[in-house]
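pinned: reference chain
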Amino acid sequence: MIKKSVFILLSFFIAHTIYAQDYKHVQVSLRDGQTYKGKNGIISEGALTFTSGSMQKTYSLTDVNIIQAKEGKALKWALGCGGGCLAIGLITTATQAGKYNDISGETYSAGTLLAGSLIWAGAFAGVGALIGSLTDPWKIVYNRSSASIWNDLDLNLAPDPFTGVNLTLSYKFPNRP
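pinned: its C-alpha cells
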C-alpha cells in the first residue's frame, strides 16, 4: 500500500514538473487590453505566474490573450564571449609574463597583462550581451485564439435547493480584436 501511494505521488510530481513551463522574460497581454512585462514566468495548471517589478502576479489562462517569452540569451553570450577572451588572456599572461617583446621592445609584467586581459574580457562580455539581446526575439508561447475551443467551455455542477443538482454548460465568447 505504501509503495503504491509513493508511486502515485511521484508520478503526479513528475507529471506536474513536465507540464510546467518556465521562461526568463515574459510579456503578457490580458483580455482587458492591459500588457505586463516580467521575469521568471511559469505556466502551469491553467495559470501564469511571473514577477513584475517587486510583485509576483498570477493570472488564469482564461484571462490571458497572448504570452510572449524570451529565452534569455544575453547572459549566455556575455559569459561565452567574455569567458573566451579571459581564457586567451590568462594563457597569454601565463606564457608571456616577464618575456622580452621584440616588436615593442618592452617586458610586460604579469600584473599588466592580467589587467589588460580583464579589460578586454569586460569589453567582450558587453559585446556578447549586446549580441545575445539582439538575437533573442519575443516568441509567442501561448495564444488564446489558437487554443482549443474546449478552453472556452465552462461546465458548472452546483447544488440547487429546488432540483437538487444544477448542471450548467456555457460558452464564453472571447474578446478578439
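why pinned: The helical segments are 2-19, 73-96, 110-134. Residues 41 and 172 are 26 Å apart (CA to CA).
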